[in-house]
Amino acid sequence: MVRVEINGTCDDRFAKVKEVFAKHFETGEDVGASFAVYKDGKSMVDIWAGHADAARTRPWDKDTLVCVFSSTKVMAALCVHVLADRGLIDYDAPVAKYWPEFAQAGKENVLVRHVLSHTSGVATYPEQVTREDFVDWTKMTRLLEHMTPLWQPGTKLGYHMTSFGFLTGEIVRRVTEKSIATFFHDEIAKPLGADFYIGLPVQHHGRLADLIPPKGPGVFDLVNSDFAFKLLGKPVGLAIARNPKIPIANINEMNHMKEWLAAEVPSSNGTGNARSMAKVGAMVACGGELDGVRLLSPAIIKKIATPQFTGKGYLLAKTCMGLGLGINIKKMANGKVPLAIGWSGLGGSYCVMDLDNRMSYAYAMNKMNLAIVGDPRRGRFEKALYESLQAFH
Fold first, then answer.
1. 94: DSSP letter
2. Are strands 197-198 and 66-67 parallel, antiparallel or unpaired?
3. Hey, which residues does 359 pair with through a beta bridge?
4. Alpha carbon distance 370, 311 (integer Å)
5. What is the C-alpha separation between 53 and 57, in angstroms, rounded?
6. Phi/psi at 375 (nearest 5 deg)?
7. Torsion angle of alpha carbons 285, 287, 292, 296, nearest 10°?
8. Using 50, 70 and 90 to split pLDDT, how confident is the model at 206?
9. Which of 61, 88, 91, 304 is deepest in the core (most CB within 10 A)?
10. Contact (Cβ atoms closer than 8 angstroms) between residue 212 and residue 56
């Protein structure tokens, strides 16, 4: 059992959350991590502990950053929502209104809302892409222009695992003439003072934590197996999951590649910590305004949290999907089903915005959990978090 010092601040009413955080280090489930909670626009929990590397030679500091993979989709979606709030994007407009070359191969009627809700059918690419292709924005968006939808847009749900970032990013680029990383930094992160980046500028590389993948073979060995893919009849879900193939065993090598850090992959290579994610989330949870900075209207947030599709989908268990964010459908420890929106990332990170309780919470870590049954760390955090909420009533 390993005991570590928990750094940062934690309101006494959320003491149970801090206890859960400490327990994960004692059991070895975490090596380095941060957890943060905002309530009514105020920081309630901002804690971090452990080490930034597997060898435990570098402490996880207050400002340590880590790749949060698909939790980046929260930030990408918010870029679209800010533009929609300004009247520059219409959710019900065809994507081709903003990106004319997209109107090929049966995609003329793909709407912006279809992309945001993972129902567009443009969930992968017309050819197998490589790691080198994946950091080439022009190539990836050209491939999407030629992609034929895997289903009639709006009729099915399927995780746009990596295409989501290129789709939303190109829409943002066409509307603003800025890359999505630049737009996010200028219009969301900087006004809020949030230490989060899509990609990672070189001046911040020294703060980057290593990623620690699970030991031994896992589900991604099956996903990446060409033999298994052909044997199973090339199922749609597997076709999405393996394009590109994710090198889990060598994930930390990729994590530190200059090409990966310099690229903008709005579905996957966001870099931040729990504090920065929860701070952005607090703006949403508090009706679009935080510390006097208003980025969204309550009307737009209501639209974001309106279900677009509910059910099972390719690579998704039963899910209630809003516009770019999942909508909570489970009962929490306080016996209620709060209206909460958010998304999670490969290995365990997540960012959640509870609109009912004006609360956001986020988790960022370096030890990845890729169990098929899900990451138990999140369940423990949420149980403690919602039990703690009773102190506010």
1. B
2. unpaired
3. 39, 354
4. 23
5. 7
6. -90, 115
7. 110
8. very high
9. 304
10. no
188: alpha, beta or left? (left if phi > 0; alpha if psi -120 to 50)? alpha
pLDDT per residue as tens digits for the range 5-61: 999 999 999 999 999 999 999 999 999 999 999 999 999 999 999 999 999 999 999
Element (H, E) at 317: strand 316-321
As a whole number of angstroms, the distance between CA 371 and CA 255 comes to: 21
The H-or-E segment that residue 350 falls in is strand 350-354
- The bridge status of strand 359-365 relative to strand 350-354 is antiparallel
**What does the pLDDT look like over 138-173, one tens digit per residue?**
999 999 999 999 999 999 999 999 999 999 999 999
DSSP secondary-structure letter at 189? I
326-327 and 270-272 strand pairing: unpaired
Helix, strand or coil, per DSSP, at residue 97: helix
Which residue shows structure tokens 């789709």?
Answer: 167
- Residue 264 is classified by DSSP as -
Domain boundaries, the chain: 64-74+184-379
Distance of alpha carbon 367 from alpha carbon 24, whole angstroms? 11
Q: Residue for token digits 């680029």?
A: 173
C-alpha 149/C-alpha 234 separation (Å) is 16
**In the numeric block, which tokens belong to residue 154?**
């709006």
- Angstrom distance (rounded) from CA 333 to CA 245: 37
Residues 6 or more apart whose CB falls under 8 angstroms from that of 234 comprise none
In one-letter notation, the amino acid at residue 367 is K
- Write out pLDDT tens, residues 275-311: 999 999 999 999 999 999 999 999 999 999 999 999 9
Cβ count within 10 A of residue 259: 12
Instruction: Single out the residue of 387, 353, 390, 385 nearest to residue 44, CA to CA.
Output: 385
Burial of 312 (0-12, 13-18, 19+ CB in 10 A): exposed
Superfamily of the domain at 64-74+184-379: DD-peptidase/beta-lactamase superfamily (3.40.710.10)
Inter-residue contact 321 to 160 (CB < 8 Å): no
Q: Give yes or no for a contact between 331 and 257, defined as CB atoms under 8 angstroms apart.
A: no
Across the chain, the runs of DSSP E, i.e. the strands, are 7-10, 32-39, 42-50, 66-67, 197-198, 270-272, 289-290, 293-294, 309-313, 316-321, 326-327, 340-344, 350-354, 359-365
Measured CA to CA, the distance from residue 388 to residue 386 in angstroms comes to 5
Amino acid identity of residue 90, one-letter, is: D
